[in-house]
């Protein structure tokens, strides 16, 4: 659980220290701007902007029922963040599995990627795709509608 929040907490702490330094130098505007920037980075790397994660077995069950793809991801992954942002609202159509919370999901990712935990890994029709292009993922979602 703590590993998920390590990077966002580190960013908030670092931003607070840097902002305090700017305040001590008499630059309150710079302090506020830096604190906001670090807070935004912390939010972007936190699990808060991702749809609610489910377990790998539950994702497989749901995917079999509705045909929607499964995305294996982890907090702090910039490629996962890029995929999430580029999908926009369509990201909610996918089943998201956080591999740091689900050992079975991490094992599935390793088996699909020669032992590596390469994320995002997308499972479409039981075929894994490592770090797919977001445009391709949008096409897959459009074809499943």
TrEMBL record:
The chain crosses the membrane at residues 29-50. It comes from the Bacteria. Residues 71-125 form the Glutaredoxin domain. It holds the Pfam family Glutaredoxin. Keywords: Membrane, Transmembrane, Transmembrane helix. This is Glutaredoxin domain-containing protein. It comes from Streptomyces longisporoflavus.
